[in-house]
Amino acid sequence: MMRYLKMMNSDWRYSDDRLKNRAKCLSILLNKYGSARIEEQNYFTKDIYECVDTWVSQGNPTSSGIVAYFEAYFKGEKNGIK
C-alpha cells in the first residue's frame, strides 16, 4: 500500500498544486454547466470530469481557459452532435 502511495505522490499530475487546480477547474465547470437539466444538454456530466482530467494532465497550471476548452472540445459530443 505504501509503495502505491509513494508512486502516486511522485506523479506530477497528483501534486498538491495540480490537485488544487483540478478542484478549481471542476468547480468552475460544475458551476457553469452542472446545474443545467442534463437531459436537455448536448453534453454529459462525464464530459465535465473528462475535460478537467485532460486539462490538468496536459500540464495546464491554472484554470484560465478551461471554459473555452470545454466548449471547444467537449460540449456538443452527446449523441454524436458536434
Low-confidence stretches: none
The value of Rg in angstroms is 14 Å
What composes the largest sheet? Answer: none
How far apart are the termini?
43 Å
For the residues shown, what is the average pLDDT? 83
Structural class: mainly alpha
Q: Count the DSSP helices.
A: 4
Give the fraction of residues assigned to helices: 55-70%
The geometry reads as elongated
- Per DSSP E runs of 2 or more residues, the count of β-strands stands at 0
Question: What is the succession of H and E elements?
Answer: HHHH
**How many structural domains can be distinguished in the coordinates?**
1
Question: Strand percentage, roughly?
Answer: under 5%
Description:
The protein is mainly α and 82 residues long. It has one domain (2-80). The chain has four helices and no strands. Helix 2 (16-33) packs antiparallel against helix 3 (45-57). It is elongated and about 40 Å long.
List the helices and strands and how they pair.
Layout: H1 2-10, H2 16-33, H3 45-57, H4 66-73
Helix pairs in contact: 2-3, 3-4
Short recap of the structure:
The protein is an all-alpha fold and 82 residues long. It contains 4 helices and no strands. The protein is elongated and about 40 Å long.
Features:
mainly alpha, elongated
